Amino acid sequence: MGLHGKLVSAIEFKAGGDVFHELFRHKPHDISTMSPGIVQGCDLHEGEFGHVGSIICWTYTHDGKEKKAKEVIQAIDEEKKLIQFKMIEGDVMELYKDFVITIHVETNGGIDLVTCTFEYEMLNEDVEHPISLLTLFIDLTKDIETHHASKT
User: Fold this and answer.
1) Could you state, in order of their start, the residue ranges of all structural domains in the chain?
2) Dihedrals phi, psi of 15, to nearest 5 degrees
3) What is the pLDDT of the chain when averaged over all its residues?
4) Partner residues linked to 76 by β-bridges
5) What is the 3 state secondary structure string of the chain?
6) Which is nearest to 144 in space by CA: 103, 108, 90, 89?
7) Are 54 and 48 in contact (CB under 8 A)?
8) What pLDDT digit, counting tens, does each position of 28-75 carry?
9) First to last CA, the chain
10) What superfamily would CATH give domain 4-149?
11) Calpha distance 3→126 (Å, rounded)
């Protein structure tokens, strides 16, 4: 079994791809109000929200346990509505040597798809692929969509 992996999910987002991208880029601290069962907090540790090199710390619930994740924003592409985070500390790093999350929005035929890609390297062959984390992100996306749909 290889230690490197890549998981991708693409889910339709009816509340508008621009809304989703702007939220993750400029207002990630608002996500906890949209999905309090998953995200309890998002704090800026260094830099500014929405800028490459900035460091963000998330508090979230996964598998019934409160966890932390510290990430650096590695890349932003406004044209592709893309933001990429590299995990630098936290619970995920206890299992993975490398963990990069790329979130982008594609619009095709008037349908916005939120695509989340996890690229990772496991510390050893006993580590499971982060499928439950990807499911958590899908659930988070649905919560954000529901929150924005209720405003229209």
Assistant:
1) 4-149
2) -85, 0
3) 95
4) 83
5) CCCEEEEEEEEECCCCHHHHHHHHHHCHHHHHHHCCCCEEEEEEEECCCCCCCCEEEEEEEECCEEEEEEEEEEEEECCCCEEEEEEEEEHHHHCEEEEEEEEEEEEECCEEEEEEEEEEEECCCCCCCCHHHHHHHHHHHHHHHHHHHCCC
6) 103
7) yes
8) 999 999 999 999 999 999 999 999 999 999 999 999 999 999 999 999
9) 47
10) START domain (3.30.530.20)
11) 10
Helices 131-149 & 17-26 angle (0-180, nearest 10): 110
Amino acid at site 79:
E
Give the span between the Cα atoms of 80 and 101, in whole angstroms.
15
pLDDT at 1 over 90: no
Is the C-alpha dihedral spanning 149, 59, 22, 13 positive or negative? Answer: negative
Tokens of 109: 């035929």
How many other CB atoms are there within 10 angstroms of residue 111's CB atom? 11
Q: Where are the alpha helices (DSSP H) in 50-89?
A: none
Give the span between the Cα atoms of 92 and 79, in whole angstroms: 30
Nearest to 21 by CA among 80, 87, 73: 80
Sorted by sequence, the CB contacts under 8 Å of residue 19 that are 6+ apart come out as 148
